[in-house]
Amino acid sequence: MEETTTSVVDWSQIWIITGVGYTVVFLALLMLMLLFKSMPRVLNLGLSKKIREVREKAAARRNGDTKQEKYISGEVSAAIGLALTLYFKEQHDEESGIITIKRVARTYSPWSSKIYGVNNNPR
Amino acid sequence: MKKFLTVISILGVLYLIPLIFGGNLMAQTIMSELPEETGGLLEGLRHFWEYTGFSNVSFGNIIMIVVGLFFIFLAIRFHYEPLLLIPIGTGILLGNIPFPAGAGVGIYESGSVLNYLYFGVTQGIYPPLIFLGIGAMTDFSSLISNPRLMLLGAAAQIGVFGTFIGAVALGFEIHEAGAISIIGGADGPTAIFASAKLAPHLIGSIAIAAYSYMALVPVIQPPIMKLLITKKERLIRMKPPRAVSKTEKILFPIIGLLLTTFISPSAIPLLGMLFFGNILKESGVTDRLADTARTKMIDIVTILLGVTVGASTQASVFLTGSSIKIFALGAVSFIIATAGGLLFAKVMNLFLSKGNKINPLIGAAGVSAVPDSARVVQQEGIKSDPSNHLLMHAMAPNVSGVIGSAVAAGIMISFLM
């Protein structure tokens, strides 16, 4: 490791690195700042367009020149409601509500047979 | 307690014997005084003794072991960055257990296990993985809701460039100065990454200095805050941050990634991983990946990084004049960075309307050191006004400090490589 440099330090280079480096760090974060300062406005552009449309419609309705809204009959509403209820109800498993002990039938195997156990030695 | 003291005393005596009599000489002196007929057994014992740490210990090893124990003590007793100081402290112990050269166990001996693990440090593999985890656990909401606080993170990078000038003035070669300067960013992984590229032989000293000062943030920063910020300024209440939409949270890492890496491509491994981790978190569709990155993965990498960085401080390599200078520069850089953030916050207040003023204390959080410096700001704020909570506000300059220090490291690398 060189503890002291034998060559003469080029201080102009050091100052350039320091000045440019610090400015670039500042600029990078400044650009990020400016972008995100304007971000809510950009994101709200679509929203404000929708709000404007709703307001225009409401104003038109107040003036009485609204287009006839589509009429939905009671039967159709009931059918939609039923469909939604059935759909959401099926999100959960339907359980029978009967609790029983399940019988398990195992096939016979001589490996588990008591007849052939090691304790059953013929005397 | 008596037993404990007895064991410690015996160990102390064993350590001191070779120090007093001068390493291997001790074994030879004892053995030569014994009759020759006891031959084979004693020869074996002599070989064994020469192989032990007690025979090979040097004064430097003892100093470093004490440093390691001090790190572990700081972590357990005062909770100073325990997740870092325990692995580093233990690593220092591991790295300073004396062994005969060529035993194939030291971190600098090729083929040893520690040497393989150290590869992740020397090649700059661990820092980007740590950044991935940091990205996956960081919530940038406070920064997005109040973007002007990003400038505080930029202002605190004066510590990096101030240290660069200081290191050159102290006689370090320009690449070494560039590596040392990143300590001023108060960001351990960034400092390791930069030194792996610019001055690999200084990694141990730089990493230990960076992590030590990061752990000592609660000690270093409060006096500077008291010195530079008036009582009246400390009482300033800031507006609560606005709610941030999901779209903004998703856009931030994408835009941040593109913008910062286009400006500083050398920092792609760090910034790329940081923002990638954040995309995993904010996208909402990769919870499993984000969860792994911010828990198991960052834990594994922290363990490996801490232990190997600690073990790299072998007394013979670490205890040099350069290390002392690096430590001194590290302390100064932390002070400059903290002061830079605080003063810039004061300057910003000159241009802000009355209702929008910021509490200048949060400028200190611009030094990175997530989340410790933000926590210090909160504690200092509460001391002046117990109902004035600054933590959320301080997190904004804190995370922008992480971005700023990575950009600074990238710029330094691109200038000097």
**Low-pLDDT stretches of chain B:** none
Largest sheet of chain A: none
Indicate the overall shape of chain A. Answer: flat
Would you tell me the structural class of the helices and strands of chain A? mainly alpha
What general form of chain B does the structure show? globular
Radius of gyration of chain A: 41 Å
Question: Count the strands of chain B?
Answer: 0
Low-confidence stretches of chain A: 1-6
The CA-CA distance between the termini of chain B, in Å, is 56 Å
The percent range for helix content of chain A is 55-70%
Helicity of chain B, as a percent range: over 70%
Oligomer: heterodimer
Main beta sheet strand tally, sense and closure of chain B: none
Mean pLDDT of chain A: 77
Overview of the structural elements:
By secondary structure, chain A is an all-alpha fold. Chain A has a domain at 10-62. In chain A, 55% of the residues lie in helices and 0% in strands. Mean pLDDT of chain A is 77; it is low at 1-6. Chain B is mostly helical. Chain B folds into two domains: 1-24 and 42-57, no CATH class; 125-416, no CATH class. Chain B has 23 helices and no strands.
Strands, helices and their partners?
The complex is a heterodimer of chains A (123) and B (417).
Chain A: H1 11-62, H2 74-89
Chain B: H1 2-21, H2 24-32, H3 39-51, H4 53-56, H5 59-78, H6 82-95, H7 113-122, H8 126-137, H9 141-145, H10 150-155, H11 158-169, H12 174-181, H13 188-198, H14 203-215, H15 217-228, H16 231-234, H17 246-263, H18 268-283, H19 287-311, H20 315-318, H21 321-351, H22 372-384, H23 391-416
Helix pairs in contact in B: 2-3, 5-6, 6-14, 6-19, 7-19, 8-13, 8-18, 8-19, 11-12, 11-21, 12-13, 12-23, 13-14, 13-23, 14-21, 15-21, 15-22, 17-18, 18-19, 22-23
Brief characterization of the structure:
Chain A has 123 residues and is an all-alpha fold. Chain A has helices at 11-62, 74-89. Chain B has two domains: 1-24 and 42-57, no CATH class; 125-416, no CATH class.
